[in-house]
Amino acid sequence: MAETRPDPADLKRARQTRLVAIVLAATMILWMGAQFVGGQLGWETRFAFLFDLAAIAGFVWAMVVTYQIWRGRRG
Fold this sequence. Notes:
The chain has one domain (10-74). By secondary structure, it is an all-alpha fold. The protein is 85% helix and 0% strand. The chain contains 2 helices and no strands.
């Protein structure tokens, strides 16, 4: 039986997809953890906003990369 190798573009897309999934999960976990710890320790509101902005940056990055993956599959 002949073994077929995956297309290098498919491998790259799979790596990007895995990276997006890891970034999304890590961003959400770290953001929720920071909110919890900040509430328990009584951090100032500006620190909560700092973590919010960092989470937004992670989510925006993931959306941009996901869009690029989607466009790459269509083209």
